[in-house]
């Protein structure tokens, strides 16, 4: 059994089709099919049910998928640990975060790094938990979901979720808006997996309101600028829009940004220091509290 065959198995399970996995892995479809059958032969069990038009995991395949992912994660961790011990420093550091956070927070922070800092890479993690983000290959996961053992986390900052209105809107000079007033207006919301949308849904608790869904914060703000409604987003302002803080019964609508890493990582101390620097950068950039 070869480790690359395990990677092919996981990629195919995640893609749902051999063709999709082959494109992701830069392999031919027949070649990938042969490699998957070789893995099944090595393990002595069928991993996929090929009796239907769509390739589906067998019962055994579903049972083994989590262990396969864990094996790949441990293999990647071994490579990182070997590099860390050989060089005495972390050469590369992958940061996983939602798209908005990567654009508005992580990318500006990367621009401040020194030449002797680890070379950063990023991984999109919309809708993923910290554990899933780290399992996908990130060394540091940025998000809003609390972590559990064996992961460590620190609070980076509490960031507002804004209601964006055009400069000529009657509320533009108010600075804040009541949640109850927003619920009477047409609203432009982000997809359900976005952190700003999750915070919004928790605040409204199912209260009825008129809404349209935009693909991301930039499109939401573009629609607001075009007069289609009020955008609810945590992105930096665009298109000349005015951000209003949303009052929700004694507190303001916000998201708590957390940094999470695996305490067993060979460079855990380095990653923790990197996370602390990121937190200071965010708080300075947005004049935001840590908690």
TrEMBL record:
Write out the entry's keywords from A to Z.
DNA-binding, Transcription, Transcription regulation
Query: PANTHER family annotated for this entry?
Result: HTH-TYPE TRANSCRIPTIONAL REGULATOR CYNR, TRANSCRIPTIONAL DUAL REGULATOR HCAR-RELATED
Family assignment from sequence similarity: Belongs to the LysR transcriptional regulatory family.
- Where the record annotates domain HTH lysR-type, the positions are 1-58
Q: What is this protein called?
A: LysR family transcriptional regulator
Top-level taxon of the source organism:
Bacteria
| InterPro entries (alphabetical) | LysR_HTH_N, LysR_subst-bd, WH-like_DNA-bd_sf, WH_DNA-bd_sf
The answer to keyword DNA-binding applying to this record is: yes
Q: Which Pfam families has this protein been placed in?
A: HTH_1 (PF00126), LysR_substrate (PF03466)
